[in-house]
Hints:
With 65 residues, this protein is mainly alpha-helical. The chain is 63% helix and 0% strand.
Amino acid sequence: MLERKPMMNLKLMRIKRNLSQVELAKKAHIAQNALSAYECGKISPKVEVLCKLAEALECDIKDII
Length: 65
């Protein structure tokens, strides 16, 4: 069975919307290297950052976690 990383949906949502990490980071007003770390599961974003990402992706927070 494949194990999913906690923030894998974030990457899938970004790709589904045809956004690069740089583009999403700019839309969400966060650093691209932080976005990369979230997608890889190296660090977990704070609630405020999740809100920014959800807004930039035009989705609910629950859709990206």
